[in-house]
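seq:
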Amino acid sequence: MSVRNCNLYSCLLVISLCLIITLPVYAQPDPYPANPALMEYIEQINADSMEATVETLIGFHTRHTFSDTLSDETGIGAAFRWFENECNRLNEGADRIPWTYTWRGTEYTRYNLLFGRGGTPDGYPSFILVGAHLDSRTVDINDTEGFAPGADDDASGIACLLEYLRVFPSQTFLRSVMYCAFTGEEQGLIGSNYVADMMEECEWPLGAMINLDMIAHISHPDGTIDSMTVRAYSENPQGSHGRQFARYVKWIGEAYAEGMTVTMVPAIDRPGRGGDHIPFTEHGFTAMRLIETAEDPAYQHNPNDTPEHMSFSYLHRVARLTGGVIATLADAPMVPPEPIVHNTGEGTSLLVILPEDIPDTTETIFVGYRTEDETYWEGISPTSADTDSLFLEGLTEGETYCISISIAYENGCPSLFSEEVSATPCGGLLPPDAFETTSTQEGIELVWEPREELNITGYEIERGLTYNDFEAIAQVPHPQGTYFDTNIETGPRYKYRIRSIHTEGDRSSPSPEEWGRLASHHLGILLVDATSDGDGSPGRPYDVEIDTFYEHLLSNFDIAGQWDIIQLNEQGRFLDDSDLAAYRIALVYSESLTNVFTTENDEFRKYHANGGKLIFVGWQMASKLEHSSTYDTGYGEGDFVYDMLGIDSTRITPPNEMEMQGVTILPYNTTRRFDEERFPEWNGVLPVSEAIWTDSLPEGVEVFGLFSAVSGDEYEFHGRPVAIIEQGEYPEYSSWAFIDVPTYYLQWMGRHLLLHYALTEMGEVSYDVDEREGMLPDESALHILGTYPNPFNGWTVVEFSLPQPGDVHVELFNLLGQRVFNTSMAASQCGYYQYTINAESLPSGVYYVQVQSHEWKDTQKITLVR
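struct:
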């Protein structure tokens, strides 16, 4: 890997004129050289001194968090006071941080001890925290009196804290270094949770936290020895702040550790285990943990955890390593901003543009880079702060790299590394990414992400009609990422694609196609079917039944088109705003209980933002729009039902609570129930029904339908909104309506009123107003009102009026007068009825449907077309 500096303004010239030399890729960068001034302190770290601290701590017999606090010889109280006195002897100002906890029915107050060495805060507002835990335990976590020496776990870490306090004199560093001895670690990180919560709530400027826990054991359970590696644990993902800190610990610390190597582990801790760095990570701070490699549970949480099983030379190396990191970071600048990284287009190099707003006192900038799958850096390259940019060369084409920077002042101490930036070196010429179109009332807006390569000069826009070839219609300069096409006609659907233009005039391959159409809204209603085909059982209707139902229900309105989301998705054809743009209203329905359709929410947003009107209606419609599968769902910014409809929560009735019996339709002051004939198994009551649970809908949103429960006011869903609409004032009609009800299952008048109200509020006109609203049939005989559809393919619905209750016979005859279909139903009251006829087994031809009750009968001709 090689690095080549360049001036930002000459990047293009360098790319075109210079021969790029590829050098071997480094396996890993060498440790950063130790700072001689800081090494003077590190050399003072003494293994015998740390061993004496460990011996003293095990002498307290147990340091269980809830052990004796009154004795001066045993228990957590004696250990804490001894350690506090040692801290005050070496550094005045150790602070007790109290916390309370109820353990086994008794409330206890315990303390963490916070102490440290301050620096000058001016220009260095953040501080460093080094932690270890003072408490110990036996195998039985409730044993407060048994021998719990806790030598490795974690007198080893506490010994380091005391040693740093001894060897780093006061006011040594520019940045404050604080140390904390936690209690309650063995009972679930109680003390460190309290400190992390306190620091977040009080907005303490914690820059980095390192946890030293179990850092002196070198024998694996199988007897093999590892005295030269230490593990570093930090939070996922690879680009997290904790992982960046762990990389820094390895890079800086190894130079001070007498040959010790840091092994980075891509996890926050061992499986099922944890340490005091975790609460700080969870509170948003930068934190990581060091722990021995040769961990052996046989010497943890039991009387075997004694100094005889520790290596104090190993502990000495870990203390040196960590001390070097602490001292370096305490004299280092703040974390710099991230760089800007571009693909050069050459194939094996990236251009790194260094940020302009780094401090003027910066002497050196370090560029760290790694492939995205690697835990540690592949290389770290220094460059002068006078450099505007540099090239990383010798990279692997098509491999994604993560790049970040560190800075150092005159003292040479590097900062933590910045946020990482990802980039992929690619050769050849590629089209722009993230290309999309939006259909507006003035034209079609094209947006894309400009390429990062340095050899791009512009973009060529190509357009075509559905069945025509593309032709170039415009060129725009790089880095422009938009184009607005107004040279289009009302009606046609246009296809677009984009090519990048090379410095030498070559064109890239085209981008994927996107579509657009003038948002003219000159056509009527588009029925968008989002109901999957069922088996006819309750909650799983046949798709053809639902399509027929809506065609019939809205037959008096201007139905201009149909779109089946699920069927077309299966064919690879997805709804976009160009499919909607010609229609005044898109009515989206999903009447099945079980299906979850592929929503096109971004396309609905575009369509609505450019003048289109939307109606959503169906069973658990909010949950389907957001792909939610929970019974209690909250929504927020970015969610479609929140942004557009103002719904912040919905709830669904549990399956065993059969409660939704209908809908109270407020504009007509009437409650309409579900049709028992649709699903007699449920007796006209719906399971798992959804209601809007938003306490206060936004201004301008009107509720026009309420949940009607069998139990009435005793049931918490009763009276909750299930239908809402944007309020409109003439001539500004409503632009959306949301009906969270499967209208297919409502009795005729209920479904008619809900959809009729929504459509009329949107300015739609019913061409043949249905006068049956709220009325019983006044005919003196039975009449077939119609069959829908007719002609039909397999299924048709016959609707008839019945002036008197009684048995009803529905029959189908062919042209020879032969009866080919026969069924009966009992009508308990007069009214309007529908019956679906299944003619799947019949051949094409003309048939006669006959409905008969008492002495009345009526006949109508229908046509079956295969």
